[in-house]
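Example (one chain per record):
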Amino acid sequence: MDWLRWIIFVVIILAFALSFVMAFILLERRIVGKFQLRPGPNRVGPMGMLQPVADAVKILLKEDITPAKGDRWVHRLAPIVAFAPALLVFAVVPFQGKGPGLGFSLDQPAALADLNVGVLYIVAVSSISVIGMIMAGWASNNKYSLLGAMRAIAQMVSYEVPLVLSIVGIVIASGSLSLNSIVEAQSIPFILLQPLGFLIYFLGATAEINRAPFDLLEAESEIVASYHTEYSGMRFAMFFLGEYAYALGVSAIVSVLFLGGYKFPFGLLPQSFIWFLAKIFLVFFLMLWVRSTLPRVRIDQMMAFAWKFLLPLSLVNLLLVAAEGVSTIGFGWAAVGINVILAIAFVVIWANRFYRVKGVTVG
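Predicted structure:
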């Protein structure tokens, strides 16, 4: 029965997302510790592996506080509205495609819904979290929370524009809005055919999910803890878990759009969800690498980076893809070297223009 299949798949997605979120929390603390020449959490459980469990127990035991003059119901609903879209994204993510795979074969793609407009669904659903942020800032009846929510909206709207334009290049190359069709079209991973698009999407998505160096939404020295200043206990934990769930979602989407999803590079081995999971961890590691390397930027630098750097480059990338007709039946491997060289050239040229006011030269 379809309804039984859907229930099973929903349970699998929830278990997958929540378990990976806890794994990401532990990995981030351990890997960032290695980058900073310190051990990281190593007290609770073997090699500190139970530290996320200890953190969860600590948060559950904390008092849940609601501001006396705040909007009680909106204050309670805001964490749910901010967290739920992070899980809804996985409804259209294909974990494995139709046909023979590594160990078993599937009669249809391993996804809750193989929508023919999967890309539009992801863009629409991921934008809902903004509503939860503004609800949290408004309902807290706190000026710092409201200012933080306004900053969150400005940041997410600004970076949504180049992010969506970078996805349009993928849609042109694959000729489909279905995520499964996009994966199947990648006989050559799109990260090689559209390196500039990958860079734009990765940076834009990193800013959208409030990851360093774009974590201005929680600039404690300026606006305390932004829109969730007045939250504690489990409701604060939902905002915290939502950030990691979005990081998981972005890693999965990057794997699908640019890295071939469940397909082994160049088809050397049969398809499998194992390759998909490995690519998710690879993208998340790249996020941690960026976080550990770059310092937090100022709010004016962050907004200028979106409108004066990423947006022009996303338009250039779109023109390149449209002009070249890059696809698996187009230029193919001949386009890889050309696009890598063009991506480096445009990034260096635009970076020099972007930093010229500061007397900095890039390249």
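Caption: Residues 357-363 have pLDDT under 50 and may be disordered.
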